[in-house]
Amino acid sequence: MEGLKNKCPGCKRISCNGCGIFQKLNTNKQAKIQFPESFQIEHGTGLGISFDVGTTTVAGMLWDLEQGSLLGVETGANPQAAFGADVISRIKAAVEQEDSLHRMQELLVKKLDEMALRMVRQLCTEDWPGAEDWFYKKNRSETVDGQEIRGEKGKACIRKVSVVGNTAMCEIFMGIKPVKLSGAPFTPDYRNRIFLEGKKLGFHFLQDAVFTVLPPIGGYVGADALAVYSYVNQAEQNRRILAVDIGTNGEIILEYDGEKYACSAAAGPALEGGAISCGMRAAKGAIDMVALNGSFPVQDIVCRVIGGGPAVGICGSGLIDGVALLCKVGVIDRTGYMRSRQEAKNAGVSEKICRRIDERNEKRRFLLTDERAPVYLEAEDVRQLQLSVSAIRSGMEILLGKVNRKASELDRLYLAGAFGCYIEIESGIAIGLFPDIPRELFFQAGNLAGTGAAMALLSEKTLERMEQESSKITHVELAEEDVFRELFLKHMSLRALP
Q1: Where's the RACo-like middle region domain (predicted)?
Q2: Is 243 in contact with 416 (CB distance < 8 Å)?
Q3: Does 117 reside within a domain?
Q4: By residue range, what is the domain housing residue 167?
């Protein structure tokens, strides 16, 4: 168990000085963003912000445009969740309900405005050298989380803001009714990059900034996927790459010997802790790793909790670990069925683990922690995970089929997104989320959409290149692929660990 305690929750390394992804999600600090070696910053003036607007989570980074240095990081939940946990629900609400589009846009703008103000305020309180040069005195106040904030160093000289997200999130952010996305053939309602003034979008703190919304690739494959591709395109000399940005709306991009394809997999919120009985984001109190302790017949389940202390819930990486482990020991079978105590005992599961199966109500569930701070994994949670896994894996297989290749023939498989950095590769392979290929082909790259958004902010040439590349990638609509249903049913089965 000592190894489990010492592993960084972000990058899974046993020795780590503080993984950037872990810091970003849990302490709002990120000391370093790794740009490709070939990337060149075009030095500007003032401050800038890059936003990655996800369906479940939004993330922002504050930049010194002159030095190209990162000054602050903020993350938070997308406030549009009240209109639906997934993209389809929000598109439907925006198109069919009279005031929903305006309300969703308003909520998101307010959230981003507050995140920007928090980053700037934190910069001031840290006595950052030169901070006085970035601010001027003001009389009016700003409000963050319901608290009025006054002060001499209030409004930042934020000149530029870049925004990426899936197509629906970008369109709702701009106040565009996503009519074309709501029905076949599911095309974007905008094509090229768009420049907008902050005040016209409804911003207060960022009212003087110019916003650049990056273009989509096609369908639901949006600017966030383009940002991921832009990073990979500059970072890699090899051209046999599959990049998977894992989230509520999972984007998959393949480049193989000059052929470029992209698709969007409706994974749902399960991988980010949504639609799960005890699910939550990767924050303090979340179970992020599940393991076995001891030897049969006295072995038992142990969980690691972000921040220590009692568990409050379980995040996506813990969910994948938990299901993979329960499949391995025999509590869950290959179909995803959670066995009863007697069935598990008959399957050779240890007595201690069998006692964790709760059959006292109609919903069968498994106790991951102890009854003093109970966190359960329900049978329905397993089904939700299976749907997410199958959607993403089927998308990967369909793109590889376009070039008639297998995953083992890739030079590298990028796992992007903050969640992609948390997943234990072996657990992902165990439940069928990833192909069983040599482990050295996997590269857990972190939030590449956010990094790509920063690259667009810091380099006009990169921004122009992104716009050009958006039209060179062939969009694949999974629902129109004949083999999709067959693959989806195939990958619903869990693949047990050897």
Answers
A1: 47-122, 156-229
A2: yes
A3: yes
A4: 18-213
- What contacts 412, CB < 8 A, 6 or more positions away? 236, 238, 240, 241, 242, 441, 442, 443
DSSP one-letter code for 340: P
Tokens found for residue 39: 């990337």
CA–CA dist 227, 414 (Å, integer): 13
- Whole-model pTM: value is 0.83
Phi, psi of 261 (to 5 degrees): -135, 150
In this prediction, residue 131 carries a pLDDT of 52
How, if at all, do strands 147-149 and 142-144 pair? antiparallel
d(CA 219, CA 213): 16
Inside any domain, residue 207: yes
In the numeric block, the tokens 């690259």 are attached to 455
User: What pLDDT, in 10s, does the model give residues 64-123?
Assistant: 999 999 999 999 989 998 898 888 999 999 999 879 999 999 999 999 999 999 998 888
Is 437 inside a domain boundary?
Answer: no
Residue 153 inside a domain? The answer is: yes
Of the candidates 287, 263, 260, the residue with the CA atom closest to the CA atom of residue 276: 287
CATH value at residue 51: 3.30.420.480
